[in-house]
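Marked as duplicate of an earlier ticket. Keeping the data here for the record.
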Amino acid sequence: HNSAYPFPRELIRRIVEEHDGWLPVRIEALPEATVIYPHTPLFQLMAEGEWTPLVTCLESLLTMLIWYPST
């Protein structure tokens, strides 16, 4: 990760060590090809406890890597 965006390196390391690489985050999204009104959230990320900072990082990554190119 070579940008100025703060990357939660320690959280990622703990995910690999404690969860075998599985993200302790729940992602809810609208089905593909759903017609929606403007300003309707397309996806929602949820985590509990100490994993909540990971949501901010993942939301930014999903926005940059999936939503921007698809629109």
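See parent ticket for discussion. Strands lie at 26-29, 43-46.
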